[in-house]
C-alpha cells in the first residue's frame, strides 16, 4: 500500500493479510501434528558400484548463509523465537566453543589453549584472555569475531588491530571468520609485535548443537597457513615454484616452513580477477603414489608420462595475466 490508497482499501488489504497469516499458521501447526518426518540431510546412500572421477566443475564449501524471511511472512513461533534471541548470542556461543576447543594449526600437538577467555566490551573486539607458550611465557590474547553472513576483509582486521594495540595492548589478535578476503593475509603482517592470526571457523558453528556434537573439537577453529612460493619469468612466460607452506606454531609463537611433502595438491589461477578463484593449473605433491591409487580406482591403465607433468612442485610456463594478478591455493593433508 502507498499513501494514495483509500482508507477502505487499506483496511480490506490489511484484513486479507491477517486472514492469510491465520490460515498459514493453521497449516504450519497441522504439519508437525499430523505428519511423520524424516531427516534427509547428512545421510547419503553408498553405492560402491560407482566410480567418482573429476569433471569440468568443482564444488567447494561456501560461507554459511541463510535467507531470513520478511517479518510479515514469519509464523508465530518464528516471530517469538526471533524476538527472544538477544544481541550477541552468536559471539557468546563462539567464545564458549573457542575457550573449550582452542585454536588448531592442522598439526595434532600444536594447539593454542587458553588459560582463560572472557567477553570483552570492545567495538571490534569480543573476547580477551591469556595463553601460555611452550617455554612458559604468558601472552595476552584478544579475539575479534567476523560477520555471520559474509567475509572478513582487510578493513575489519585493521580496525581490530588498532583497537588491540591501544592502552597496555595485547600480544596476539585472533580474527575468527567463516570466510576471508584474499587480502587479509597481507593485512595481518603489518602490525609489528602484535601477532594477527586469521582463524577459520567451522561452518557447523552456525548450524546448531546437533552438528557440533559430531564435529571434533580440533576442527572448530583452524589457523590456515600461507604458501611459500617463488615466481620466475623466462622468455615472457611465468613459472611458479612451490617451496612449502608457512604455518604458525601457537605453542612457540614462531612461523615454521613445512616441506612440500605435507602438501596434497596445489592450484593456480593464472588470471585472477580478485573475486573468483578459477582452477587453471592443478598439481599433486607429497609422498603417496597418485598413479597407483588412480589405477586401482579406475581399474584402468594410467598414462604415467601425462600424470608426471601434474606431479610437480614447479608449474608449467604460462602467459602473464591480463588482470596483473595470479592466485595460488594450497591443500595440505
Give a short overview.
The chain is an alpha+beta fold. 26% of the residues lie in helices and 25% in strands.
Please give a structural write-up.
It is built from eight helices and 14 strands. The protein has a six-stranded mixed sheet with strand order 3-4-5-6-7-8, sandwiched between helices. Strands 9-10-11 form a three-stranded antiparallel sheet, with no helix packed on it. Mean pLDDT is 78; it is low at 62-87. It is globular and about 80 Å long. The N and C termini lie far apart (58 Å). The protein has 333 residues and is an alpha+beta fold. The chain folds into two domains: 89-223; 226-332, no CATH class. It is 26% helix and 25% strand. It has helices at residues 7-34, 76-84, 89-101, 154-164, 184-187, 209-214, 290-298, 304-308; strands at residues 103-104, 111-112, 114-119, 127-132, 138-145, 172-177, 195-201, 221-223, 226-234, 237-249, 254-258, 263-269, 281-284, 327-332.
Give the termini distance in whole angstroms: 58 Å
Which segments are poorly predicted (pLDDT under 50) over 5 or more consecutive residues?
62-87
Q: Give me the number of helical elements.
A: 8
Main-sheet strand order equals 3-4-5-6-7-8
Give the helix/strand class.
alpha+beta
Tell me the count of domains.
2
The quaternary organization reads as single chain
User: What order do the helices and strands follow?
Assistant: HHHEEEEEHEHEHEEEEEEHHE
The average pLDDT is 78
What would you call the shape? globular
Amino acid at each position: 500500500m502507498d499513501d494514495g490508497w483509500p482508507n477502505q482499501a487499506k483496511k480490506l488489504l490489511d484484513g486479507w493479510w491477517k486472514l492469510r497469516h491465520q490460515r498459514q499458521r493453521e497449516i504450519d501447526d497441522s504439519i508437525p501434528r499430523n505428519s511423520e518426518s524424516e531427516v534427509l540431510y547428512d545421510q547419503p546412500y553408498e553405492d560402491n558400484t560407482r566410480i567418482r572421477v573429476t569433471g569440468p566443475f568443482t564444488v567447494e564449501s561456501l560461507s554459511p548463509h541463510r535467507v531470513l524471511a520478511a517479518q510479515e511472512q514469519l509464523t508465530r513461533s518464528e516471530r517469538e523465537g526471533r524476538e527472544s534471541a538477544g544481541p550477541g548470542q552468536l559471539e557468546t556461543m563462539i567464545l564458549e566453543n573457542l575457550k573449550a576447543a582452542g585454536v588448531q594449526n592442522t598439526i595434532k600437538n600444536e594447539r593454542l589453549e587458553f588459560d582463560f577467555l572472557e567477553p570483552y566490551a570492545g567495538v571490534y573486539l569480543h573476547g580477551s584472555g591469556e595463553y601460555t607458550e611452550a617455554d612458559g611465557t604468558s601472552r595476552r590474547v584478544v579475539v575479534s569475531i567476523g560477520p555471520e553472513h559474509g567475509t572478513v576483509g582487510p578493513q575489519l582486521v585493521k580496525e581490530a588491530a588498532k583497537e588491540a594495540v591501544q592502552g597496555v595492548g595485547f600480544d596476539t589478535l585472533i580474527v575468527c571468520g567463516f570466510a576471508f578476503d584474499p587480502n587479509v593475509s597481507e593485512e595481518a603482517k603489518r602490525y609489528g609485535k602484535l601477532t594477527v592470526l586469521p582463524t577459520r571457523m567451522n561452518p557447523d558453528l552456525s548450524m546448531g548443537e546437533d552438528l557440533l556434537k559430531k564435529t571434533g573439537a580440533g576442527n572448530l577453529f583452524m589457523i590456515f597457513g600461507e604458501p611459500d612460493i617463488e615466481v620466475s619469468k623466462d622468455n615472457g612466460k611465468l613459472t611458479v615454484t612451490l617451496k612449502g607452506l608457512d604455518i604458525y606454531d601457537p605453542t612457540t609463537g614462531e612461523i615454521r616452513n613445512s616441506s612440500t611433502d605435507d602438501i596434497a595438491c596445489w592450484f593456480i589461477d593464472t588470471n585472477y580477477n580478485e573475486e573468483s578463484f578459477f582452477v587453471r593449473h592443478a598439481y599433486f605433491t607429497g609422498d603417496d603414489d597418485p598413479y597407483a591409487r588412480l589405477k586401482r580406482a579406475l581399474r584402468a591403465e594410467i598414462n604415467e608420462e601425462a600424470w608426471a607433468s601434474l606431479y610437480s612442485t614447479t608449474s608449467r610456463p604460462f602467459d602473464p595475466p591480463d588482470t596483473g594478478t595470479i592466485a595460488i591455493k594450497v591443500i595440505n593433508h
